[in-house]
Amino acid sequence: MNKDKLHKLAQNPMFIAGIYNYCDRWCERCAFTARCMNFAMEQEEGVATKSSTNPEAFWKRFEASLVMTKELLEDLAREGNVQFDPAEIEALEQQGKQRHLDAEEHPLTKAAFDYDEMADAWFQSGQDALRGKEEEILAQAKLGVDTVNEEIASLTDVVEIIRWYQSQIYVKLMRALDADAELEAANELPKDSDGSAKVALIAMDRSIAAWMRVKEFFPEQADSILTMLVHLDRLRRGTEKEFPNARNFVRPGFDSENATDTSSPQPP
User: Fold this and answer.
1) pLDDT reading at 137 higher than 80
2) Of residues 240, 235, 252, the one with CA closest to residue 190
């Protein structure tokens, strides 16, 4: 999408400003897609929403978005006859790169990255168990067990929830820790870092609930699942300590008065 189309979309009053900054990117299960400019942009470009939690894909789109934003700002500056100091711009870019590097080395993002790998390893090693559970459910279906359909739906749902959020926790924490703390402190607006941290916390909450449900399906895997739960709980407590105001952040649309957070499901 070029900057002219972006500018035109931004003028549409039906969009909730900034709603896409603090969602879980699960567009398929979101009731606010019609009011989300980012969703409209992705539909325009034919971007598959399921790729949105992939960290590499996320940062590529984020970089492209920054380039387009820079072009728009340059256009506005020319219209207003505003001059930028190249040296100052270079210094700001260097500061941004350093913040990004620092965020990558932060204990929270490292723990989130570790969790992503732990979840992958669990599903890889548990493929036989998952297939065994599927065969067990199919056998019950042949016997006419009434709860089979509900059990299949429940297991499918909790696995989808875990898989959807496992990489997103890292992505959202990176964004929260990559924020310009001095700039945030200088204005009176709610902190973007708190909003991003809140989305990460919600992802952790839902992942923990989903893992608890998985433990019910696979009691023989209790030890490995408990290891995952302990890791996630420590990460959650660490995030709440690093961002003490994150839980109180009001996300546009989702946390507005009388709004219901329908950005994604809770585990059954």
Assistant:
1) no
2) 252
> Do 268 and 154 touch, CB atoms closer than 8 A?
yes
Q: Pull the structure tokens for residue 124.
A: 């890889």
Q: With left for phi above 0 and alpha for psi between -120 and 50, is residue 100 left, alpha or beta?
A: alpha
AA letter at 119: A
How would you write 185-225 as a 3-class SS string? HHCCCCCHHHHHHHHHHHHHHHHHHHHHHHHHHCHHHHHHH
Contact indicator for 242, 236 with CB cutoff of 8 Å: no
Query: 160: which 2 tokens?
Result: 């989808």
178: left (phi over 0), alpha (psi -120 to 50) or beta: alpha
CB 268 within 8 A of CB 158: yes
Distances (CA, A) of 166 to 34, 54, 108, 234, 237: 26, 10, 14, 15, 17
Residue 102, pLDDT > 80, answer yes
Task: Tell me how far apart the alpha carbons of residues 90 and 93 are, in angstroms, rounded to a whole number.
Answer: 5
For residues 221 and 217, give the distance between their C-alpha atoms in angstroms, rounded to a whole number. Answer: 9
Side-chain-facing half-sphere of 141: CA atoms under 13 Å: 11
On the question of pLDDT at 258 being above 90, the answer is: no
Separation CA 39–CA 45 (nearest Å): 10
Residue type present at position 29: R
Tokens 């002219």 belong to residue: 4
